[in-house]
Amino acid sequence: MKILKRILIVFTLLILVIGGCIYYAFKIEPYRVTLNEFTLNEEKPDREHLKIVQISDLHIKADFTYKNLDKVIKKVNEQNPDIVIFTGDLYDNYAIYRDDENIVTALQKIEAGYGKIAIWGNRDYGGGAERTYAAVMEDAGFTLLKNENWYITLNNGKRVLFTGLDDALLGHPVMPDETKIYDSDYELLLSHEPDNVEPYMNYDYDIALSGHSHGGQINIPFLPFVNEMALTVTALSSKYSGGMYTFDDNAIKQLYVNTGIGTTHISARFGVVPEVTLFHIYV
């Protein structure tokens, strides 16, 4: 009888733990936001401190609307960024849910000293989003890059290059015809899908920034195969699934894969908290 009671207690606790994890995955973690910070080069007296904030994969939909962006936008603006970069996937499925007016109003609240830039993701093409994505981002104050270069000149005269590639799944990414028109002191390559950075490894960029992967969305400790299975449904992000990668034998020195804000396929995250990334660059 005692053994039966113990089994019942263990079973009840197991059910409670599993139920709690499921509740957390669907109702709590997707609505959190964390800040990840990186210093990319050495601080020196003659260098200007450039703060770049990256956000990615908002995946706006019925259960994650413009109202849920308030926390994200607050986190971005708290960093007092010089540049804000959005690496694609504004809506989850534009044909099912869209709210352009409120999204524009929300994204207009993002502040950046030198400007805000964006690139195309695969979701920015599908479901009819291709017809309106450019207008939405431009109305929100973003410069949208499609196989284009964008430069800023800092107060100390140093020049920073941003090259934004088109989406690799539904677009046509190519290097701009006149890549690096000007000499630059720091260079960033932007590609929505991280695995698509590989064809450009011989181009001399200090870092590439990507998104798309969501880090798999589900990352259960001690069960890595769950995360691996989640990544298999996300094309062109299985090799570089999230975080910082450093390369010793390539012209591109580093790749950072932002694990995004929103969700897709299922509206859940576990062990992959939505992130805003802050890069400290000294140029």
TrEMBL record:
<feature type="transmembrane region" description="Helical">
    <location>
        <begin position="7"/>
        <end position="26"/>
    </location>
</feature>
<dbReference type="GO" id="GO:0008758">
    <property type="term" value="F:UDP-2,3-diacylglucosamine hydrolase activity"/>
</dbReference>
<keyword id="KW-1133">Transmembrane helix</keyword>
<dbReference type="InterPro" id="IPR029052">
    <property type="entry name" value="Metallo-depent_PP-like"/>
</dbReference>
<keyword id="KW-0472">Membrane</keyword>
<dbReference type="Pfam" id="PF00149">
    <property type="entry name" value="Metallophos"/>
</dbReference>
<dbReference type="InterPro" id="IPR004843">
    <property type="entry name" value="Calcineurin-like_PHP"/>
</dbReference>
<dbReference type="GO" id="GO:0009245">
    <property type="term" value="P:lipid A biosynthetic process"/>
</dbReference>
<protein>
    <submittedName>
        <fullName>Metallophosphoesterase</fullName>
    </submittedName>
</protein>
<dbReference type="GO" id="GO:0016020">
    <property type="term" value="C:membrane"/>
</dbReference>
<dbReference type="InterPro" id="IPR051158">
    <property type="entry name" value="Metallophosphoesterase_sf"/>
</dbReference>
<feature type="domain" description="Calcineurin-like phosphoesterase">
    <location>
        <begin position="50"/>
        <end position="215"/>
    </location>
</feature>
<keyword id="KW-0812">Transmembrane</keyword>
